[in-house]
Fold these 2 entries.
Entry 1:
Amino acid sequence: PPVEVAPGAVHLPGWLDGDAQADLVRRCRDWARGPAGMRRHPMPRGGVMSVQMVGLGWHWQPYSYSRTLPDGTPVRPFPSVLADLAARAVGAAYGAPPGPGADPYDVALVNFYDADARMGMHQDRDELSREPVVSLSLGDTCVFRFGNTETRTRPYTDVELRSGDLFVFGGPSRMAYHGVPRTRPGTAPPSLGLAGRLNITVRASGLEG
Ligand code: MD3
Ligand code: FE
């Protein structure tokens, strides 16, 4: 059953069945390959992110979107399977799919967490659109920290995200601070054959071209 963690933030545990999870893991392995594949992004003030990422439709790197990687490699196309999944996810979370006037879902970020990867508290503000962000978790369980819109500190709520969980962040939750303080290595469903955690976020960039 959907759990509204905060206004507009809806958690649907176990939304993807085992077959759907396995299908997405297989697709992620494909998207991760090649010159436009998964990498650790450099941070503008030094260091690299511990999470590995690949963008589909748009390349995201702290803190902007572009159609190419820094070396000019074109980004992978945004797959229609994720557009369909995002529309179904919004419908499942809010009781109605995106309306005809909604900005189209046109970008997905696929994040991979090895046992040591973490994501610090941040807001997602590089999209011009305020359409809800759709998040799908695969593999290892993580501790997801859902905060407030004012500060990157307390108050926040820690939620365990497990393989197959859907989380949709819209309305006032769209600009909330959030992060992943840790994963729980070795907790992935054995049938997935995945050592680590994958998270797919599907977004509307609101960008042109
Ligand atoms: C709340 N990813 O890619 S997913 C990210 O698990 C990101 O990899 C985390 O934060 C992960 O930016 C968290 C849940 C999530 C994603 C986007 C959000 C929560 C969000 C955007 C706005 C508010
Ligand atoms: Fe985020």
Note: The mean pLDDT is 98.
Entry 2:
Amino acid sequence: MGVQINPSILSADFARLAEDTAKVANADWLHVDVMDNHFVPNLTLGLPVVEAILKAAGTPVDAHLMIEDPDRWAPAYAEAGAGSVTFHVEAAAAPVRLARNIRAAGSRASMALKPATPIEPYEDLLPELDMILIMTVEPGFGGQKFLDIMLPKIRRTRELIGKHDLDVWLQVDGGVSAETIERCAEAGADVFVAGSAVYDGRDPGAAVDKLRALADQ
Ligand code: DX5
Ligand code: ZN
């Protein structure tokens, strides 16, 4: 598998989601940020909008749940058809059970770590997961500055995945752009979320191609 580029529709026009998702038909996944105004200080969208996107878009959906109580809510996103469902370990009461429930509902199970959350305590959970998301900003908003201090954690996570010989994807999210994506790739990330870097310009599809070319070296 080569690198994957996942545009974050948080930076799209919410009144024109069908058009804006069609502009990135060359992307691997659509990254959909669900925020509940409790786990993060921002409110975006929930299951009904994700279901509408699933119907409208031809690209698989990567649901990033920045919500409290993912144990209760995350499996419904898998049942609705999101191909990948990411919960935050800081919010999960029983992450192993939750990952198993997501997989049982037919989706890839993914676990996210906020910037201050280390990977080491979760080494033993890696076989239960299909992807780890290392946040490279504090979750909650698009357009923030990439945190370079996360690069060692990306490197360390790649080492742990390799140590156990697992096929776990390693995603980065926050401040990923033409300026920062090569550093992330070099550290071992293979799935790249980009919101403002894709949607703030004139041609989102071309931005996806450019990011892919930079990461795939
Ligand atoms: C932030 C979200 C990100 C956000 C990224 O909490 O999880 O997916 O949309 O936006 P950029 O790429 O602009 O940092
Ligand atoms: Zn996200």
Note: The CA atoms of residues 75 and 102 lie 5 Å apart.
